[in-house]
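Q: Can someone sanity-check these two? First one:
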Amino acid sequence: MTSARIADYINANQFDEPCLIVDTEVVRENYLSYAHALPDTRIFYAVKANPAPQILSLLAKLGSSFDCASMQEIEMALAAGATPDRISFGNTIKKERDIARAFDAGIRLFAVDAVAEVDKVARAAPGARVFCRILCDGEGAEWPLSRKFGCATTMAPHVLGTARDLGLEPYGVSFHVGSQQTNLDAWDKALAEAAWVFDAMAQQNVYLQMVNLGGGFPTRYLRDVPATEAYGEAIHGALIKHFGNALPLTIIEPGRGMVGSAGTIRAEVVLVSTKDVEFDVRWVYLDIGKFGGLAETMDEAIRYKIRSRRDHDEMAPCILAGPTCDSADVLYEKNHYPMPLTLTVGDEILIEGTGAYTTTYSAQAFNGFPPLRSVIL
């Protein structure tokens, strides 16, 4: 839902191009919700979700740590006020020179998922802590992750054992249950795998300390999602189930769940047309599409809540598309989207729940369109 502060800003301003407006008060509320639901877990905000300096500074002041995917994101987190001990280099695919730069900046926590990555960390960041990411199937996620990141659970002891042999500190295990995960049991299955790795390493006299529970925490789009408290209860129960009284240190990496609900994109209708007299489903073209920041509509995985001032009129299904000269720039075609029949050129459109993964997915100048503008309140 668009916050009152965002609605006031939109009503008070004129727009020539699509614009994302983010309410930092909603970000604050989301952070406090995670801290309350998982009080014994450290929060590492996934910077890639929205790296706006105002958001990073707010979270740093609230006590958040940061999950960074690149040296550039590390520099952003440091500039926002985070100390090196509150930063994780969480990408498992890193250039060795970036590992060295991060180490020189004081970063001591690195993700790995392969022996070759361990070799790089050992050379560039001697003595650093490493955690091994294991694969998850992502069942129940609206935006499932591929096998690009993570290794088989049975390989993790070898990866962590190699880290020990090369002078690194095997610190823990991480996983990601898939983005926009609405299945509360997803963490139970993943924690069972993590506990197996802990046991396997203990047999090598290596005692891991930390489980990185990853991201996956959702924001609300068209469908309701479980409350943050429900995730906290499910995760706590799974931890006790698989680790008993020897609970590990835990961290989470919310991105979408932290900032998604804080943002609304103000866009407008560019064209309403039909393609065939025998096919009466309208095509509604907006001034924003996949290349303007809505890349997560790929395969129609994420269905945003879209509102207009005409929503009290009769609705009918339509095909929603973006403005660029690329045939892939269609948002919803397989599953038509209901929009007012009275919708016309120039009408204002609000796309809600867009605070995450929109500015960072926006193309620099595809077809000459400028990147998505952002206003942080």
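And here is the second, same format, sequence then tokens:
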Amino acid sequence: MSLLDRWTRGEHTADGTTHPTYRQGQGPGVVVVHEIPGLTDKVLAFGQEVVDAGFTVVLPELFGEAGRPMSPAYAARSLGRVCVSREFTTLATGETTPVAGWLRSLARELHAELGGPGVGALGMCFTGGFALAMMVDPVVAAPVLAQPSVPFPVGRRRSADLNLSPADLATVRQRAAGGCQVLGLRYRQDVAVGRRFETLTRELGDAFLRVEFEGRQHSTLTEHRQQEGVDRVLAFFEEKLRA
């Protein structure tokens, strides 16, 4: 049995857009958004850990081929596709990624079914900041940003940008001031993250919980996995999502 075989395939449609989803588990809901190139075996393995910790996990498939292993060629092809897709922004500053609306709808559907304080949202790498965009909806009670890397850090302005419109950033600030904390993970010398952690600290203050590891690696929860990071994520979900 492959890792993917444990998950139940479905789909979610919002605003005329449909993406496949994979679901497993029981308990409070968590949406885990995959990194480039897609739902690889290591992303699936991380999702399984969240399931095993007692959560209902939904993995949306936004690009790539579910279950296909990571490779440089596969990553390059996926990157090329997202760069031309209208669902994503890669270089624009002061804009919220268009797919955020679809992800918020998915979170609302999950929360309507499961109830409780809210749902968790985790993005990684290319999708790292998507959890922050999802936080605009009050059903998202536990946003996690793992090495957020968009917009691509070309220049100081882009490297500090949070991939949010001014209105969405204002809502995120308001929610943080009201007690909604945001967990962030990165390697300190990861150039892809740019200066975003400094921006998050400035904008959210003590509501931004920084978890940082020494080194220049990138994928804190998958390819360059840090067990401490995984443990912190699971503890965060446990604290925020149990009624």
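A (reply): Looked at the second one. DSSP finds eight helices and eight strands in the chain. The CA atoms of residues 40 and 69 lie 5 Å apart.
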